[in-house]
Amino acid sequence: MSATQEGGTDKSRAQERAFHDESALGKAYDTRLMRRLWPYLLPHSKFVVLSLVTLIVITAIGLVRPLLMGQVVSAAGARDSSHLFRSGVLLSILLIVTQFLSFVQVYAMQLGGARAMSDLRIDVFDFLQRLSLRYYDRTPIGRLVTRATNDVDAISELFSSGVLNAFGDLLGLVGIVVIMFRIDVKMSLFAFAALPFVIVLVNAMRSRSREAFREIRTKTARLNAFLNEQVSGIAVVQAFVREREMAAEFAGINAEYRDANKRSVFYEAVLDAAIEMVGTLCVASVLWWAGFQHVGSGGMVTFGVLVTFTQYIRQFFEPVSLLSQRYTVMQSAMAGAERVFQLLDETDLDAKDALPEPLRSASPVDEVIVFDNVTFSYKAGVPVLRSVGFAAKRGQKVALVGATGAGKTTVSSLLLRLYDIDSGEVRVLGRNIREWNVRELRKQFAVVPQDVHLFPGTVATNVAAGTSEPDQGKVKVALERVGALSLFEAREGGLLARVDDRGSNFSAGERQLIAFARAMYLDAPIVILDEATASVDSVTEARLQHAVDAVMKGRTAIVIAHRLATVRAADQIVVFHLGRVIEEGDHASLMVHDGVYARLVELQFAHADER
Question: How is domain 446-523 classified at the architecture level of CATH?
Answer without folding.
Answer: 3-Layer(aba) Sandwich (3.40)
